[in-house]
Amino acid sequence: MKKILGFLFIMFFLLTGCSLRNDTAKDATKEFLDQYKNLSASVLTGLEEVVEKESLTDSQKDIYRDILKKQYSDLSYEIVEETYENDLAYVKVKLKVYDLYKAQSEAAKYLNSNMDEFKDENNNYSDKLYLDYKLDKMKKMNDKVEYTIELTCQKNDKGKWQVNDLSQADLEKIHGIYNYDTES
After folding, report:
1. Contacts of 83 (CB under 8 A, 6+ apart)
2. Could you give the CA distance from residue 99 to residue 174 in angstroms, rounded to a whole number?
3. Given this model, what pLDDT does residue 119 score?
């Protein structure tokens, strides 16, 4: 799960390369987000690459894969504004995702307060036991968090609108792992 940020950038490049009928920046934004919701082949390929790189057992990988699929397919969004300035367009989107940051944060706090529960038969800390617990918290997370992000779009060489690079914070918001505790 430490490699999720790298995954976010892989996913972004896989998703932005596609543009079927993006006559407006709003169309490009909708296509970009719908690839997550519809678990497109490129999303599933990227998801599989990141899950396989994790130091998880096979059963943990299955659970993690299911968590990410649920996150993407249950993502909801509303395009609230589209503005154009010269060759750029800005699309403001409200999105709701499962609050995986909260699940991870709660798991870390629980670990710190209950370290003895995560010891193996030799009384040593077991990362496997902790990851099982953390994945279970993520799997059971039904609380959603709402964010507003602004995607920047521009036309590609074929004259179709495409989504530009997203900030790391916006990618983390889409994936539900944004640390909102650092906001003032």
Report:
1. 89, 90
2. 10
3. 96
CB 89 within 8 A of CB 82: yes
Q: How many CB atoms lie within 10 A of CB 75?
A: 19
Q: What is the pTM of this model?
A: 0.85
- Return phi, psi of residue 24, to 5°: -130, 165
Domain locations in the chain as residue ranges: 4-101+143-178
b/e 80-109 (16+ beta carbons within 10 angstroms → b): eebeeeeeebebebebebbbbbbbbbebee
pLDDT in tens, 115-135: 999 999 999 999 999 999 999
What tokens does 180 get? 């909102």
Closest CA to 37 of 78, 76, 84, 93: 76
Class of domain 4-101+143-178: alpha beta
Contact 10, 149 (CB under 8 A): no
Q: How far apart are CA 95 and CA 93, in angstroms?
A: 6
Question: pLDDT, tens digit, for every residue of 29-83?
Answer: 999 999 999 999 988 998 898 788 889 999 999 999 999 999 999 999 999 999 9
What's the pLDDT at 19?
Answer: 47
According to the model, what pLDDT value does residue 13 have?
45
